Amino acid sequence: MVRVRSIGTVVAVLAGLLAPVGLASGVHVTGSPGNWQLVVDGQPWTVKGLTWGPPAADAPRYVPELQSMGVNTLRTWGTDGSTRPLLDAAAAHGLRVINGFWLQPGGGPGSGGCVNYVTDAQYKSGMLATIRQWVTAYRDHAGVLMWNVGNESILGLRNCYSGTELENQRVAYARYLNEAARAIHAIDPNHPVTNTDAWTGAWAYLKAYTPDLDLYAVNSYGNVCKVRQDWIDGGYTKPYILTEAGPPGEWEVPPDAQGVPSEPTDVQKRDGYTQAWNCITAHGGVSLGGTFFHYGTEYDFGAVWFNLTPAGKKRLSFYSVQRAFGGATPANTPPVITSMNTPGSVAAGAQVTIDVAATDPDGDPLVWSAAWNSKYLDNSGGLGGTPVQVDGNRLTLTAPDRLGVWKVYVMAEDGRGNIGIETRSVRVVAPRPDGVNVALGKPTTASSYQQSGNGAPFPPGNATDGNASSRWASDWSDPQWLSVDLGAVTTFHHVQLVWEAAFGRAYELQVSDNGNDWRAVYGTTSGNGGVDAIDVTATARYVRVHATQRGTGWGYSLYELGVYRR
Predict the structure, then answer these.
(1) DSSP class of residue 56?
(2) pTM here?
(3) CA-closest candidate to residue 205, choices 337, 307, 331, 117
(4) Does residue 110 surpass a pLDDT of 90?
């Protein structure tokens, strides 16, 4: 007779005795349509996960925190020899890993290039060999949950092909996935195989050409709550998981007043994770859970948009996920920024006043900081910290010197490892100098100008037309010059150069009475672009910028050459 100490123990014992033969160990998708479940070593497993960002070698440092959050699953995009520390740390704390294998082209341009899945036998056989190698290496590891072959490639193939050829490639890719699934099952019958895409429409290809997958997977952010209906409408016959989910992404949100994506607030992101989890779990017996994006310590444009722990600091969304997963009750939570008011535009180098409203639920004093990002100027992801003066709820900082739409970030920290972050876009414009611009609309010539390319031509007159959005651009060589004829000998007191990204590192301001004999009135060898405001008094008919060293690999480009009489 078996003696038990509780009803729960009875249930557990019976579950073990009644588990289907062969399913008492390993990971399997069990059940019938509409009543599926993921089973790990004979026990139901709802995927409560996060995508993994830190180096695998750092997993022992971070996994205990994830365990306390209630996380039971981590998702990666690649599996190789460096994966073992992550698997080891996961297994030591009761977590499992969705081990990814990256296939080209991934989600878009720059995600690994374009492969011809119809003809490129060498690539396909090479990747199959890689997949077999690492499945064999890790198939018996207690940290493995499942294998995930490919990420967003059915959607991503549109960046490589179009028309009939796109369709052919998608079919060939789906058939290749089936070949990979069969190869994995032959090596490891104890872990499921899935494939991720960013589009539920990809499931139609999997349904038709990839029958050996155990379940489907999709990355979905703003449309996560539509996945259930897409599954119903598609008549699919396999369960699924979400392998990336969270608040709406940059590609999904409407533009703000500056015409750039309107990033959700910290509070909206917090609530977005809660809503996403509610929608994932509402499709019972079909949706087997999901991994939210993203657990990482990066601290840049993308990290502020998505990371739960940018720079290792916990934000509202961290605790939102912790609550959703049934994790530990937090002893302290982040500051909550409820408003952030910024000017629509500001002059380059001028003071910017930002009014914020923020509270700390635990009464901790707030420490403010700020940063600028030029994503919408040059696709840079980095955040450039900037000094900030704090006067109650008013923050004052200095605008960048370069023109265009910038993102400004304000951060409130509580000294306990928590952070609140808000961001808005601000258009930096050229300051208006005092006096009269005597170069406005005057005849302008140059050593060269670009006559072809995106937006071309860029003739010399664009630099003196008073239009801040038009520009002169030279050939990509040194030296180059731009000259304006004031029409008569004129005394002036100030010159303003408004550079596009292609600025002059070394240049002189030169003047002439006849357009032939030039004398320098100003020079620099350390130009850094943006707006150069030069106080210089001279009398001449002609004013010339003579540039001898470019600041970039491009040519020279000026939005405006202003010559001011005061």
Answers:
(1) G
(2) 0.87
(3) 117
(4) no
